[in-house]
Amino acid sequence: MFYRETGQFKTTYEADSAVFPILQDRIGIAAMLVFMFVVVPLFANDFVINAIMIPFLIFALAAIGLNILTGYTGQISLGTGAFMGVGAYACYKLTSIFPDVSIIVMVLTSGFFSALVGVIFGLPSLRIKGFYLVVTTLAAQFFLEWAFIRIPWLYNYNDSGAIEVPARSSFGVIITGASATPTARYMVVLCIVVAMTWIASNLIRGRIGRSWMMIRDMDIAAELMGVRPLYAKLSAFAVSSFYAGVAGAMMVFFWLGAAEVESFNSDNSFLILFMVILGGLGSIMGAYMGAAFIWILPILLRAAPEFFGIDVGADTMEHINFMIIGALIIFFLIVEPHGLAKLWQIAKEKLRTWPFPYA
Amino acid sequence: MPILAWGIDMEFLNSIFVAPFVDMFSAPDFLLQVLWEGFVSGILYGLLALGFVLIFKASGVFNFAQGIMVVFAALTLVGIHSFGIPAYVALALTIVVMGVLALTIERVVLRKLVNQPDIILFMATIGLTYFLIGFGELVFGGEPKKMIADELGIPNGSVSWDIFGGVVIFEYRDIAAAVIAAVLVFSLGFFFSKTRIGRALRAVADDHQAALSVGISLNQIWVIVWFAAGIVALATGIMWGAKSDVSFALQVIALKALPVLVLGGFTSIPGAIIGGLIIGFGEKIFEIYWGGLIGGGTESWFAFVIALVFLLFRPQGLFGEKIIDRI
Questions:
Q1: ipTM exceeding the 0.85 mark
Q2: Contact indicator for A87, A69 with CB cutoff of 8 Å
Q3: How do residues A169-195 score in pLDDT, each as one tens digit?
Q4: Strand, coil or helix: what is B145?
Q5: Do A138 and B137 touch (CB under 8 A)?
Q6: Fold classification of B22-313 (topology level)
Q7: Which of B118, B128, B311 minimises the CB distance to A132?
Q8: pLDDT digits (tens, 9 = 90+) for B218-250
Q9: Is the dihedral of CA A39, A43, A44, A46 positive or negative?
Q10: Which chain A residues are Cβ-neighbours of B296 within 8 angstroms?
C-alpha cells in the first residue's frame, strides 16, 4: 500500500539509474542512516556498541570485500582472514613508524598493503578456477598466518607476539586504545564503513564492476568480448583485499584493542564466507544481512536460555550453538540458495502489490 | 667490496642448494627415517583425500565435512566402546552409525539441493561440518580421547632395522596404516570397476541424466557413496587416532587433504594416495632439511605451496580429467 512506485516519473537518465530509484527506498535508507548515526550512539549502552554494533560493521565491511571477489567475480576465496591480518599488521607497523599521522589515514593506507598481497596471491587465479582456487587462497591463509608468527619485526619484537593498540587521537578525541570510549570508536568505524560501502556500490555499477560480473558469468566469453581477465581478476583481488585489510585494521584498532595470529585464522575466513553466502552472493545489502545474521544470532542464542530461565552450561550452549548455526546454514541454502538478500527482494516484490496482489 | 658480497651470497646459496643434500647423503639412515615418516603421514593424508574423491566422483559434491566425519567416526567408536561393548562389536555398530548418517544426509540435505550450483552444495557441507562439530561435542564431550587401538588388535611396538650404519625405526601401527590403506584402495578400485553398483556409480559420475534414464536411482547411489566415504573416514579415524589422540583438532589437519586432492586430481582414487604421498614426503623433507633456514614450522603451509606450484603447470592435477572450457 505504501511501498509503491506509481506516480514517480523519472525525467533524466541519472534519475533512472540511481541506486535507489524509488522514493520509499530512499526514505528507508535515510531512516537507517539516522538510526545508525544518531539513535545508536545516543541510546545504546556500551555492551551493545562494543559487542554487537562495532563487530557487525567491521564484519559487514569484510563481507563486502569478499563479496566483490566471490559474489561478483566468482572467485572463491578462503584467505579473507589472512588478508585482514595483513591490514592489521600493516596498520600497526605504520602507526608505530609514523605516530603523528592520523590513525584513520593509517587504517585506510594499510588497505593498500593487503591489496598488494592480495594481488600476489591472486595471480594463480588466472590459470586456476573453481575449487582449485580454494587451495591457492588457503595457501595464502596458512602462509600468512605462519609469517605473522615467524617475522618478529611485524609485532615490534615484543615478547607476547601480540600487537597492542597504542592510544591515538583524531580531532582532539581519543579514538583507539583502552581509553577511547566505545561511542567514539563506533562513530569512526561507522563513517569508514558507510563511505566504503558507497564506493563499493558505485564500483560495482560501473565499468569495472560489469567486467567482474562478466568474468563470473563466463570468463571465456568475457575474454572474447574484450574484457581482459588479467586486469579484471587482479583488480577484483586488489579491491577485495583492500576492503578486507581495512576491516582487519579496524578490527584490531577499533574493536579488539590487541590481537594475535589467532584473530586472523581460517575460522575467520570461513565466518566471512558464511556471511557472504547466507546474505546472498553478489549483493551489498546481503553482506550486511549475512553479517548481522552470523554475528548477532549466536549472541541472542547465548542469551536465550537465561531469558527463558533454563539453566544450561556454557559449554553445552556453545555446542548447541554450533549445531543450530550449521542447521540454519543448511536450512537457508535449501529454502533460498540466493541468500537473505533474495528473500528481502521477494518481500519487496510482494509489498508492491500488497494488499491487493491480483488487482 | 663485491667479492665480500659474493662470499655472503655463496654461503646462503650453499645452505639452500648444497648443505641439505650433503646432510642427506652423510646420514642416509636419518634420511630413510624421514622418508618413512613422510610416507606414513602421506598415507593418512591420502586416506583423508580418498573420502573426498569418492563423493566428488559420484555426485560432484565437494564434501568439506569429510574431516569432521573422520573425527565423528572415531569418537563414535570410542564412545560406544566406553559403554563396555567389545571392540569389534563397537566397530560394527559404528559402521551402522555411519550408514545412518549417510542416509540422513542424503534425505535431509542432498535430496533437497539437487541441481543447485556447486558452491551451494559446498556450503551445505560446511553447514554440515558445523552441525557435526556441535553434535559430536555435545554427545561425546570436547576433550581428546584415546583410540582403542589395542582392543581392535592393531599391534603396538616397533621394529628397528639396522642399515647404513644406523637404525631406522618402523612402528607397527604405521605399517598397519599402510596395509589398511592399500587394502582400501584395492577394494574400492575393485568395487568401482567390477561390481554392478560400482558401474552404476561411474555412470552417475559421468552423466546424471543419462544414468537416471537407464534406471539408476540417484538417491540410492548417493547414500552408497556417502556410506563408503563414512567407512573410509572410520578407517582414517582409527589409524590417525592410534598415532595421536582423537580430538576435534584433527579437523584442521583435514584441510591438508585439499592440496592432496589438487595434486592427485579430484576424481582419481590412486591419485588421492599418490598425491598424499607426494605431500607427505615433500613437507617432511622440506621441514627437516630446509625449514630451519626460515624459522621452522613450515608444515602448516608447505603442502599448499607444493599444490600451488603444481597447479600452475597442470591445472587438472596429476590424474584428473582434462578441463575443457566451452562457450
A1: no
A2: no
A3: 777 777 777 777 888 889 889 999 999
A4: strand
A5: no
A6: ABC transporter involved in vitamin B12 uptake, BtuC (1.10.3470)
A7: B311
A8: 888 888 888 988 988 888 888 887 777 777 777
A9: positive
A10: 150
